[in-house]
């Protein structure tokens, strides 16, 4: 034991080793300086944002107290009859996005293309100058009808069985005259991201045998926001469902095509969101596929429909012609359901320890797996020593 200790002391006393250690520390100083500056700036921004949030909460409380108390007792005072929850403007917004994608707009970037024995999947991404990232996907299910796929998308009771991210759902309101529903969701996310809450309206239009299923976030004063889970207010997730010819080229329209357009503002950095979507997309699609096939088997053996599936059959008849008008580079006003101040807070979140932990974890993985930081520091130290010689 003493021999090892003496050898270690002798090694450290060598001038070359000591000089190398000093060089490594000097190379690391800029990294630690950047970290400390980032922490100071983050704390300063957090302090100011807390003050702004407190002032905003006081203003909201004053407005609520001065208003009619009966207005917030029930969402029906805002959405009487369900005609203003999801409107024709929202349908037009979906159709415009679909036409824009299918017209060959080059702003859509290809993300993924996968094929299984009974499913084909393609996905694209678009980054507007203003607003969250948009995603579009086209899925073709073999041996599926548009009606069954429509019911599957709406059936939240069954979704709890196959979607591990859905922790809770509740039908807040429904309007049988046009099939509109107001839904409350809570979704689970990884440890570094808090759970998210969604309150959205949804409605289905039918044009021929094509279904346009529109879902968007809406304000709902009867259910006030809480600190946790964080509510996602800017949310648009809608589908076009129709029968298409099977990719097997058998001449039969035995397949079902689902074209999804989705965007939401979760209040996390865009780059983090892009990485999460890119790495989790195919796994989510496979869960979706297995969930649909399980739903298909369940419907073959059971005649009882859930309340959500029953409401999916109440559609609004319409006639939709494709539009060749170019689409703006940002979500339409019809799909924006939050005010500018709230949107700016969501798009540019303040300092949050979760991202420090997340960034530290990523850095640790890089160091342990590849040694990139260590290699950079050692190369820098070696170059300094070579220059001194």
From TrEMBL:
Cited SUPFAM superfamilies: Bet v1-like (SSF55961)
Residue segments, region Disordered: 322-341
Gene Ontology MF term list: lipid binding
InterPro entries cross-referenced by the UniProt entry: START-like_dom_sf, START_lipid-bd_dom, START_lipid_transfer
Keyword Membrane: yes
Residues in START domain copies: 96-297
PROSITE patterns cross-referenced by the UniProt entry: START (PS50848)
Keywords: Membrane, Nucleus, Transmembrane, Transmembrane helix
Gene3D superfamilies: 3.30.530.20
GO CC field: cytoplasm; nucleus
Main location: nucleus
Pfam families: START
Localization annotation: Nucleus
Polar residues bias locations: 322-335
Transmembrane regions: 20-44
Keyword Transmembrane helix found: yes
Protein's recorded name: START domain-containing protein
